[in-house]
Amino acid sequence: MQKKINSMRILQVKPYLTDNELKNLMSQQTDISAFRDYQIVYFVQTNFGKKAGEIAKGLGVTTNKVYKTIEKYNKLGLDWKKYIPRGGRREARCIMSLEEEASFLKSMEAEALKGQIITHQQIKSRLELLIHRTVSDDYIWDLFKRHGWRKKVPRKSHPKADRQAQEEYKKNFLNCWQPNR
């Protein structure tokens, strides 16, 4: 029943911009999602009386996308595209900028290359002292990945191991257990 009610609603946009201004803004967009949002607003503004289901079908988006886009545009006005959160790293929400992270890791690079930094906990404690707040272990591992650091692991075999002796041992080793008689 809810679907029928929603698909029967007729959409309206508040006239913040003229049709030509909307068309110009739409053509200036470089991001496909921003273009699509302006396209939805433009389509609703120029085709008054169309239902959301018809608009969604014509533009190849979901009905819910049409409703949410028009609701944001009507509520926020001309600043509506500034407030749409989209994934990725946002400087305002980041603990440190990429440059600050790089300089922090650069200051420890010499110690790390000498093998004096053993665990990520050491780097985590130094970072927490620097920024005066706690961070998660995941932040440290993400920090390493962003800046090309990787975890060193032990070798699979000792560098002075005798390969021939190992192969000889494998050949002569009993594969099944035999009881003493």
* Derived structural class: mainly alpha
**String of helices and strands:** HHHHHHHHH
% residues in beta strands: under 5%
Given the C-alpha coordinates, what overall shape results?
Answer: elongated
Radius of gyration: 30 Å
Could you list some keywords that capture this structure?
single chain, mainly alpha, 2 domains, 181 residues
Structural notes for this entry:
With 181 residues, the chain is mainly α. It has helices spanning 2-8, 19-28, 32-46, 52-59, 63-76, 98-114, 120-131, 137-146, 163-172. Helix 2 runs antiparallel to helix 3 (32-46), helix 3 crosses helix 5 (63-76) and helix 4 (52-59) crosses helix 5. The longest helix is centred in the middle third of the chain and has 17 residues, at 98-114.
Give the SSE layout.
Layout: H1 2-8, H2 19-28, H3 32-46, H4 52-59, H5 63-76, H6 98-114, H7 120-131, H8 137-146, H9 163-172
Task: Briefly say what this structure is.
With 181 residues, the protein is mostly helical. The chain contains 9 helices and no strands.
